[in-house]
């Protein structure tokens, strides 16, 4: 294959042949293709798209560009991928809950970037928690405990690593074929037989509209099916943050509250719903109703919390030591009586980032104690002088800047307002 002919083919809106696409991905992984040719091709894909079959071939080639994990278990292996949002800590209670229900959850997660948080940063706020385990240890812990949560390694889907870095600097990130192949190549390399997607839409999500979220979900499901996996997607709201806590250690506290049968209703509802769909999709339960009952029963029994504590200990986490706490904890007070009409996820995400909870560049280290807690939600009533939320920071200037953003994010009026709707759709094959 002559690289410029391959680029011209996509530039002219044509369909690539399997052998050429596989060859192209080999060139990306080996380094024989230069950045400028890969970048030109990425822009051609961004502009002209790919067929479902091309996406599946690209995903398969990227998946096989590195190591793949295989489990030999007598329980179903299943994972979930969320497209990310503000306060989205669902993976943390979900993985141990599913493990305690009888599934195996090999979870490879990411770090926060921009306004969205990342599971790895949240877990690292637990003193000693190690997310950089070898694949062998990851496999062994998943087999022994039913779940393990680590970060991406250099050996899983290395073609995606190079492609993602180039997409990031060439304006080619928001392309459904490229996003699909990127997410799926990494998720399929983990070895799960079934995958649940939580595709979010709204101001705090990658996809701004429900239609865009459904389009991405459709491509993720189709690609998974073509590559022999069971897939389902929930389309969920991200116009408002999930739960009351945004920030790494704060979200660990909220996740542990969920595992103790407490915590905010929306986080509990989505955790239980995702666990039930995973149990049904993977074949652990014959009906969704049976799966919902099993999820609730397992959470209530305390077994999900026991599994979380066992996973923490196995990964070096020491919960006898305190989680990081911020020096400054300042409430933002309601200026009038009223009902919360909306809490804008994007502005709250920007406020959390301003407080130091996130990173602006991949190389930065977030302040694990910083963030927002006790955040009121749409439909809740407040009286003048009552806290709308509490800001946690280690820097007074950051606190001042974040205060303005939080005030802009929360709309209050005397009109009645229903709580927001969370799960909009369930898509499957
Ligand atoms: N997450 C990924 O892993 N890849 C993308 O392209 C977008 C989100």
**CATH topology heading of the largest domain:** Pyrimidine Nucleoside Phosphorylase, Chain A, domain 2
> Beta fraction of the residues?
15-25%
Radius of gyration over C-alpha positions, nearest whole angstrom = 22 Å
The coarse silhouette is globular
Low-confidence stretches are none
CATH superfamily of the largest domain: Nucleoside phosphorylase/phosphoribosyltransferase catalytic domain
Q: Return the structural class.
A: alpha/beta
Could you characterize the architecture of this molecule?
The protein has 429 residues and is an alpha/beta fold. It has three domains: 47 residues, Transferase, Pyrimidine Nucleoside Phosphorylase, Chain C (Transferase, Pyrimidine Nucleoside Phosphorylase, Chain A, domain 3, Up-down Bundle); 243 residues, Pyrimidine Nucleoside Phosphorylase, Chain A, domain 2 (3-Layer(aba) Sandwich), CATH 3.40.1030.10; 86 residues, Alpha-Beta Complex (Aldehyde Oxidoreductase, domain 3), CATH 3.90.1170. 46% of the residues lie in helices and 15% in strands. It is built from 16 helices and twelve strands. The strands form four sheets. A four-stranded mixed β-sheet has the order 1-4-5-12, sandwiched between helices. It is globular, with a radius of gyration of 22 Å. The mean pLDDT is 96. Uracil (URA) binds next to helix 9.
